[in-house]
Amino acid sequence: MVTRLLDQITAGDGIDADLFAADTALDATVPNWRRAEMEDANMAANR
Question: How is the chain split into domains, by residue range?
Fold first, then answer.
């Protein structure tokens, strides 16, 4: 699952919604940028 997620991130073509559970939380921090998403539908829509 992690390998598939990283492959999709690296490809830059978006992430399949089926990689996320309904209660998934994604919290990413990059210098000068932060974003948090709390639902699988939001994560897939923001690809």
Answer: 2-45
